Amino acid sequence: MDLSNFDKRPAHNDFRSDTFTTPTASMIKSLVISSLGDAVYNEDDSTNQLEAKVAKLAGKESGLYCVSGTLSNQIAVRVNLFQPPYSILCDYRGHIYADEAGGLSTLSQAMIQPIHPKNGKYLTLEDDIIPNVIPDDGDIHLAPTKLISLENTLHGMIFPIDEIEKISKFCRENEIRLHLDGARLWNAHVETGVSIEKYCSYFDSVSLCLSKSLGAPIGSVLVSDSKFIKKANHFKKQNGGGIRQSGILAVMASTAIDENLPLLKNSHVKAKELGKLCQDNNIPLLYPVDTNFVFVDFEKAGISDELFNKYGDKYNIKVHGNRISFHYQISDESFENVKRALLDTWEDAKKNPAERSNQPSKFYSL
Ligand SMILES: Cc1ncc(COP(=O)(O)O)c(C=O)c1O
Ligand SMILES: C[C@@H](O)[C@H](N)C(=O)O
């Protein structure tokens, strides 16, 4: 059977997101060893093996395969919480708040405290959490903070582990649960050398995406203790997330972990090189380039989405908004083209700056 189609890399020029990575020929070949049990009955060996593999990597008792990071985040939040009224404290840019369609209010019936970190990069205990946490002191006007959710990486930025440690200690001392949206924790791990297990040790629950930088076609694994995962599976089923023969997806995800984790570093090297090019040409950036994302400050640069898209078309690359995403399937040719597109955009914007918009650049649209 000719599988060369699966190595054509349709995402070779796609800088919109690392979610555009496509399955490789070896992932497709892995299908032949997939089990075909009904995972709702917990009878699919390949799914169980993936869940155990990721749980082991995370140093947690159990894992739960979910069809998306959104589902794994939302059911994790719900399982961490018990009796409303309660609040969830998170970064205002956090995916669970900004990009999961209000699920925190519907599934978890929670008040949200979307915090703007004072340092502009990540939440700190002293500056952002202690001043904003709502105490559970019996005041019937309040919805006490019962969950803090962090994201690592967030917009490609690595959350410093010493700060995670402080926040985790505070949470444990104040009966507040701690969740990590670890959609790109793999990227933080590859960049810092800190193990997935060490990162996860500070959290009650962690959602690990397989479909972003790692390149699996579908899915995430939620990890925690066994009692938590048992309840999470209940909420997964309640929300239509029960999957039948998920083994075919699980084997591809397992192959992605084995084959692609070592490739993440190269996407960081490219992203950092583009970040350096921006600095050398005075193109303003919104955030430091720690891993695989370059966020250009379109507002300060006078760049419009339309202008960048125009040069993206000229150089045959796919871009959207001010986030330039790198992943292991980006080709060297496309890397050269994104540099040309950004430099041409910048030269154009300097001559004809876009009118200031009060709308932040959206780095995706459906
Ligand atoms: C940080 C982060 N968390 C969670 C998700 C949700 O993952 P999914 O798109 O699979 O629902 C995404 C986006 O894909 C993300 O970027
Ligand atoms: C847009 C968002 O949902 C997706 N996680 C991304 O980073 O591309």
UniProtKB/TrEMBL annotation:
**Cofactor(s) recorded in Swiss-Prot or TrEMBL:** pyridoxal 5'-phosphate
Gene Ontology cellular component annotations, sorted alphabetically: cytosol
Keyword line = Lyase, Pyridoxal phosphate
Q: Which residues, renumbered to this chain, carry the PTM N6-(pyridoxal phosphate)lysine?
A: K212
| Record's catalysed reaction(s) | L-allo-threonine = acetaldehyde + glycine; L-threonine = acetaldehyde + glycine
Q: Name one GO biological process term.
A: glycine biosynthetic process
Q: Where is the Aromatic amino acid beta-eliminating lyase/threonine aldolase domain?
A: 14-299
Enzyme Commission numbers on file: 4.1.2.48
* Entry's Gene Ontology molecular function annotations: L-allo-threonine aldolase activity
Return the Pfam families for the record: Beta_elim_lyase
Keyword DNA damage annotated: no
Pathway connected to this protein:
Amino-acid degradation; L-threonine degradation via aldolase pathway; acetaldehyde and glycine from L-threonine: step 1/1
CDD domains found in the cross-reference section: TA_like
Report the top EC class in one word: lyase
Q: Which domain of life is it from?
A: Eukaryota
Xref: InterPro entries: ArAA_b-elim_lyase/Thr_aldolase, Low_specificity_L-TA-like, PyrdxlP-dep_Trfase, PyrdxlP-dep_Trfase_major, PyrdxlP-dep_Trfase_small
By sequence similarity, the record places it as follows: Belongs to the threonine aldolase family.
Which NCBIfam families does the record match to this protein?
Answer: GntG_guanitoxin
- Protein's recorded name: low-specificity L-threonine aldolase
According to its UniProt entry, this protein's organism is Hyphopichia burtonii NRRL Y-1933
